[in-house]
Amino acid sequence: MGFTRVAVLRLAVVAGLAGALEAACRLGAIPRTSVIPPSDMALALSEVLIERRVLEGLGETFGSVLIAFALAVSCGIGGGLVIHALPLLRRAVSPLLAAWYAIPHFAFYPLFIVLLGLGRASLVALALMLSGAAMTIATLDGLDRERRVLTKQARIYRLGTAARIRLIRLPAALPHLIGGLKLAFVYSFIGVIAGEFILSTSGLGHEISYAYDNFETRRMYGLILLTLVLAVSINLGFRAYERRLARVQG
Fold this sequence. Notes:
Layout: H1 2-26, H2 38-48, H3 52-85, H4 87-98, H5 109-116, H6 120-144, H7 148-156, H8 161-198, H9 204-213, H10 217-249
């Protein structure tokens, strides 16, 4: 019942904001040359969804996002395990991880283009810079909260390093890893979309940038709404799995 009330309140807030924006646009408080009403955005979304170019760009964008996400998860968990096992390395790396998101990562995009070329590899590298650190930090937080009783059980059963990681450490850290997965996906998505804005000839970000440059306001907002719907839907999927995991463990 509590979740239902929260969901209803969330929908009410979104509906209220959308209604206020709709009224402001319809009454002329906000010029339509800048922002179109949400109802027109929804219609524009239905129009862009049947464009072959948009569907192809969407597939390319999500392909890059999934590659960056998979690399972030594997590198983040692997790096977290190594850093956690080496206290001296952790003391050296921790300040860097704490300040990681203060770095202007997009400034490295020209360097990636020189090293990796103008294409998917540069986009994935940029997204990995954003998402990998989040997964590493989440892994470290989860490993720090491993209960001592589990450590004792691993010693009693004489589990090797690989078996202990697979059977005890990662399952115990799973609630924190889910949080890292959410952040890793969000940052992968942001990195790819932003990279397509800057220098790309295809993808969802490029389509939005192209519509903006050509004053196709209606199409631009339809594509922006598509991006928001996809990101929110995937995030809600992660949240649903996180709640289910919490009920099982509870």
